[in-house]
């Protein structure tokens, strides 16, 4: 699939500069010359109309932030991210909503009103490929540090090292590395039709490709076949890899595949799927155009939307 990396959060050619991560003194110098992306409770700082909001080291909005993590070199400009989730919005400020997607935009008193913290799902399509890669990396790393503050070997506190790409236990010296969970997401077809489904709790009408986590000791191909059989009762034969997408919600790598169904009858696992159905190319065109009376498409920017759109355009090869 020649256009595989054009998916949102796909590779932009960022120089992650792993060679510089072990030089603490050098990183301190880069921090002074670089720019920092604040992340508040999983939300990157961004402008109301799109684009990320980068701050200089020492900015008042970064007061009390965790140690910045080094994202890499954007050309000659060092890029970092810092977690400021300790900050609490002032009384009366717009509250952050719970749910599948929160469209609220939280401003900070030390920043101009045009800048605020928005959910990445809501701004990802307005970001350049480079900004999208930086935002996905920042969100995933910051959330990993927040959830892995203690050593899984002995339970003692751990501390960030290597520019934020490792954590080392302060007692037993065990090293810990950022976690990425492998997930298969599959466009399953049978002739002129594709299999789509919806999980309980999704917005009304939204359908997507089936997906699931890869289990230990399992290949990508086996995971595709197992997940489709478990969730929809459909047997899949040939499977091929198409494209991947970092999906920092919270920390997955979505591995997009194409599977050829050998059977058609659907038997739902209600714990996983609320509904599943076969949709023809002609009907899918209506779905993707937003004109279907009952089915809404996968979110634009997701690899599911990407795979379906390219299936319709006959560009999976």
From TrEMBL:
<dbReference type="InterPro" id="IPR015375">
    <property type="entry name" value="NADH_PPase-like_N"/>
</dbReference>
<keyword id="KW-0479">Metal-binding</keyword>
<dbReference type="InterPro" id="IPR015797">
    <property type="entry name" value="NUDIX_hydrolase-like_dom_sf"/>
</dbReference>
<protein>
    <recommendedName>
        <fullName>NAD(+) diphosphatase</fullName>
        <ecNumber>3.6.1.22</ecNumber>
    </recommendedName>
</protein>
<dbReference type="InterPro" id="IPR050241">
    <property type="entry name" value="NAD-cap_RNA_hydrolase_NudC"/>
</dbReference>
<dbReference type="Pfam" id="PF00293">
    <property type="entry name" value="NUDIX"/>
</dbReference>
<dbReference type="GO" id="GO:0019677">
    <property type="term" value="P:NAD+ catabolic process"/>
</dbReference>
<dbReference type="GO" id="GO:0006742">
    <property type="term" value="P:NADP+ catabolic process"/>
</dbReference>
<keyword id="KW-0460">Magnesium</keyword>
<dbReference type="Pfam" id="PF09296">
    <property type="entry name" value="NUDIX-like"/>
</dbReference>
<dbReference type="InterPro" id="IPR020084">
    <property type="entry name" value="NUDIX_hydrolase_CS"/>
</dbReference>
<dbReference type="InterPro" id="IPR049734">
    <property type="entry name" value="NudC-like_C"/>
</dbReference>
<dbReference type="InterPro" id="IPR015376">
    <property type="entry name" value="Znr_NADH_PPase"/>
</dbReference>
<keyword id="KW-0378">Hydrolase</keyword>
<dbReference type="GO" id="GO:0046872">
    <property type="term" value="F:metal ion binding"/>
</dbReference>
<dbReference type="InterPro" id="IPR000086">
    <property type="entry name" value="NUDIX_hydrolase_dom"/>
</dbReference>
<dbReference type="Pfam" id="PF09297">
    <property type="entry name" value="Zn_ribbon_NUD"/>
</dbReference>
<dbReference type="GO" id="GO:0035529">
    <property type="term" value="F:NADH pyrophosphatase activity"/>
</dbReference>
<comment type="similarity">
    <text>Belongs to the Nudix hydrolase family. NudC subfamily.</text>
</comment>
<keyword id="KW-0520">NAD</keyword>
<dbReference type="GO" id="GO:0005829">
    <property type="term" value="C:cytosol"/>
</dbReference>
<feature type="domain" description="Nudix hydrolase">
    <location>
        <begin position="178"/>
        <end position="302"/>
    </location>
</feature>
């Amino acid at each position: 699939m020649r256009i595989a990396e054009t998916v949102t959060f796909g590779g932009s050619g960022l120089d992650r500069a792993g060679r510089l991560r072990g030089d603490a003194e050098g990183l301190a110098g880069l921090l002074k010359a670089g720019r920092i992306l604040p992340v508040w409770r999983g939300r990157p700082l961004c402008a109301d109309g799109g684009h990320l909001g980068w701050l200089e080291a020492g900015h008042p909005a970064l007061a009390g932030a965790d140690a910045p993590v080094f994202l890499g070199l954007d050309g000659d400009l060092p890029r970092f991210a810092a977690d400021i989730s300790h900050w609490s919005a002032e009384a009366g400020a717009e509250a952050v909503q719970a749910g599948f997607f929160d469209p609220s935009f939280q401003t900070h008193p030390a920043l101009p009103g045009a800048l605020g913290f928005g959910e990445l799902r809501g701004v990802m399509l307005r970001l350049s490929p480079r900004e999208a890669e930086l935002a996905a990396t920042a969100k995933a790393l910051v959330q990993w540090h927040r959830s892995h503050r203690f050593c899984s070997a002995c339970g003692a506190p751990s501390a960030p090292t290597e520019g934020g790409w490792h954590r080392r236990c302060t007692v037993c010296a065990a090293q810990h590395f950022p976690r990425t969970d492998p997930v298969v997401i599959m466009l399953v077809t049978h002739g002129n039709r594709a299999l789509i489904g919806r999980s309980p709790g999704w917005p009304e009408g939204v359908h997507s490709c089936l997906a699931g986590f890869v289990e230990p000791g399992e290949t990508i191909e086996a995971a595709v076949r197992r997940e489709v059989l478990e969730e929809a009762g459909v047997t899949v034969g040939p499977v091929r890899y198409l494209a991947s997408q970092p999906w920092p919600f919270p920390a997955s790598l979505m591995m997009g595949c194409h599977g050829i169904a050998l059977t058609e009858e659907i038997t739902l696992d209600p714990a996983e799927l609320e509904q599943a159905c076969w949709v023809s190319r002609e009907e899918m065109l209506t779905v993707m155009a937003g004109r279907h009376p009952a089915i809404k498409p996968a979110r634009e920017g997701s690899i599911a939307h990407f795979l379906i759109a390219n299936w319709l355009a006959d560009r999976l090869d």
